[in-house]
């Protein structure tokens, strides 16, 4: 068949499915198509075996997960380096008083917020791996600048630049993950590359403990920490620039058939690969969708506890009466608890079918444990005999670190369309910055190291997050159940409102023609079978209803 004839045939099939908009002719050859569509169409043999799919998935894992895990873990170590430096006397050496240390924490997120607009556009127009690599390299250069900081103003400026350059990393990794993996695969992958947030700080804390024994030389312990982190970050940026794969379309370690398999996996999931055009209709859809707001507000209320377990952790533990060296070592269990919690809440929804819809309840339960820790820390007296109890309470607060991973997974896996992904992630990270600007200001310098006001603020926000998480989960279960019932009894509902992208519409139409013998998927379909059209089409319509749910951001 000639290419023109084939495209015309495909167009007719899509029109047969999208009967609810007869005046809007859809053509595979025109409009805002995803980049990968042409590669899929070029394959004559579109039958892919499970062995081929598994081989491609293994290749993807080996090329993405190790790099993403190292980059994410080192970034978290870098970001928490300020807390380690404060334990070793940074505040005294730079003469920080009052809220100046808190402002050094908050200013990071002003830079993060400003950089998110630039990085968001850069990630849409340039290869994500290259953007991340450049940003990481300059992040490392800024850390090296912290070695020479001698006053509050210099440290404040450097912290702003750190936030500016870090703003590209997590959104970029999130984008790369959603561009390579199907919905049911993403939760585990998010967990794999974010679990290093809890694993990697542990060996670095041991290194910090060793650096704390350096009593002579041109650099004190906290400056050596920044020197080490800066050099490692510069090297990591170079590796990311050359090794991080951008999308299934551009990589060289997949042949054309393997690229088609990788892209078809995403097409079957109704998740776009990449489109460089900003679609204003998707912006309107997002802003008017209550599910969008429920997801991003979870990011806002959940992240207040992170300040307790990062920038103020060493100060709080040292305030229990421990030396600076012991305080560094005693922060390690916090990160270990965070890593274990992330695995617990990320793995069952991926590997166990009965837990597939339980991501949000699991992480909400983990946050309930963190609330217990906050309450114990708040009410326990400061006397030496309660030292162990207070240390244990700080450790279990780290259970709240798992919510970050789950919220990212929920946003990434339940948002279809490249523009909607960008809107959702950008809004979530905007609110992430806002809450991390506000929270350090509640940790008053006059209350150090008890920080009663800060702990009360964190307790309130985490409690709101728990309520919001459970409410969202229950509401979406109700919505999804109602949608499935309608899809079984109303063909027009199953196909008329989904507004599927062109490749997915073509796929669903072909399934109707080939599997069920249906010539037109609507309430007046014709079929040669003795069974009624609605009876034969019921399983197919249920499938479409579920795919529609994913496209329309239903939480699964």
From TrEMBL:
It is a multi-pass membrane protein. It is found in: Membrane. Keywords: Membrane, Transmembrane, Transmembrane helix, Transport. GO terms for molecular function: transmembrane transporter activity. Residues 64-479 form the Major facilitator superfamily (MFS) profile domain. The chain crosses the membrane at residues 100-119, 131-150, 156-178, 190-209, 221-243, 362-379, 391-411, 423-443, 455-476. GO terms for cellular component: membrane. The keyword 4Fe-4S does not apply. Residues 1-22 are annotated as: Disordered. Its main location: membrane. InterPro entries: MFS, MFS_dom, MFS_trans_sf. PROSITE patterns: MFS (PS50850). PANTHER family: MAJOR FACILITATOR SUPERFAMILY (MFS) PROFILE DOMAIN-CONTAINING PROTEIN (PTHR43791:SF70), PERMEASE-RELATED (PTHR43791). This is Major facilitator superfamily (MFS) profile domain-containing protein. It comes from Exophiala spinifera.
């Amino acid at each position: 068949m000639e290419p023109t004839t084939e495209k015309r045939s495909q167009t007719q099939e899509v029109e047969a499915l999208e009967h609810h908009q007869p005046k809007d002719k859809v053509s595979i050859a025109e409009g805002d198509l995803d980049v990968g569509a042409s590669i899929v169409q070029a394959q004559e043999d579109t039958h892919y075996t499970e062995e081929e799919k598994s081989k491609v998935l293994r290749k993807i894992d080996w090329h993405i997960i190790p790099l993403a895990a190292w980059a994410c873990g080192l970034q978290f170590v870098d970001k928490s380096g300020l807390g380690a430096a404060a334990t070793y006397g940074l505040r005294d050496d730079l003469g920080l008083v009052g809220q100046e240390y808190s402002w050094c924490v908050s200013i990071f997120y002003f830079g993060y917020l400003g950089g998110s607009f630039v990085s968001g556009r850069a990630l849409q127009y340039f290869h994500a791996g290259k953007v991340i690599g450049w940003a990481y390299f300059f992040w490392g250069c800024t850390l090296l600048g912290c070695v020479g900081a001698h006053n509050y103003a210099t440290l404040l400026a450097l912290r702003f630049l750190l936030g500016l350059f870090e703003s590209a990393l997590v959104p970029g990794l999130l984008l790369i993950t959603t561009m390579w993996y199907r919905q049911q695969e993403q939760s585990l992958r998010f967990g794999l590359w974010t679990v290093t947030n809890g694993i990697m700080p542990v060996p670095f804390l041991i290194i910090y403990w060793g650096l704390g024994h350096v009593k002579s030389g041109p650099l004190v312990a906290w400056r050596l920490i920044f020197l080490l982190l800066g050099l490692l970050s510069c090297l990591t940026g170079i590796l990311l620039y050359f090794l991080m794969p951008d999308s299934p379309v551009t990589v060289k370690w997949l042949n054309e058939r393997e690229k088609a398999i990788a892209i078809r996996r995403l097409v079957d999931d109704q998740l776009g690969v990449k489109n460089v055009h900003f679609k204003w209709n998707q912006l309107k859809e997002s802003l008017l969708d209550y599910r969008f707001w429920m997801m991003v507000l979870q990011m806002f209320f959940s992240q207040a506890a992170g300040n307790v377990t990062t920038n103020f952790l060493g100060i709080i533990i040292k305030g229990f009466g421990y030396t600076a060296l012991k305080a560094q070592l005693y922060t390690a269990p916090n990160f270990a608890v965070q890593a274990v919690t992330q695995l617990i809440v990320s793995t069952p929804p991926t590997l166990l079918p009965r837990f597939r819809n339980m991501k949000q309840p699991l992480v909400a339960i983990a946050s309930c444990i963190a609330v217990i820790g906050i309450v114990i820390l708040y009410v326990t007296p400061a006397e030496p005999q309660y030292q162990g109890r207070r240390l244990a309470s700080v450790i279990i607060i780290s259970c709240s670190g798992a919510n970050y991973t789950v919220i990212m997974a929920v946003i990434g896996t339940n948002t279809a369309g490249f523009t909607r992904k960008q809107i959702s992630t950008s809004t979530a990270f905007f609110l992430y910055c806002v809450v991390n600007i506000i929270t350090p200001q509640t940790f008053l310098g006059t209350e150090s190291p008890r920080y009663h006001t800060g702990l009360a603020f964190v307790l309130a926000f985490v409690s709101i997050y728990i309520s919001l998480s459970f409410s969202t989960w229950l509401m979406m279960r109700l919505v999804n159940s109602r949608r499935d019932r309608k899809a079984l009894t109303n063909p027009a509902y199953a196909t008329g409102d989904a507004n599927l992208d062109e490749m997915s519409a073509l796929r669903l139409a072909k399934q109707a023609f080939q599997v069920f013998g249906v010539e037109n998927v609507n309430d007046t379909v014709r079929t040669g079978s003795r069974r009624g059209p609605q009876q034969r089409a019921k399983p197919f319509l249920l499938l479409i209803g579920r795919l529609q749910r994913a496209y329309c951001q239903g939480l699964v």
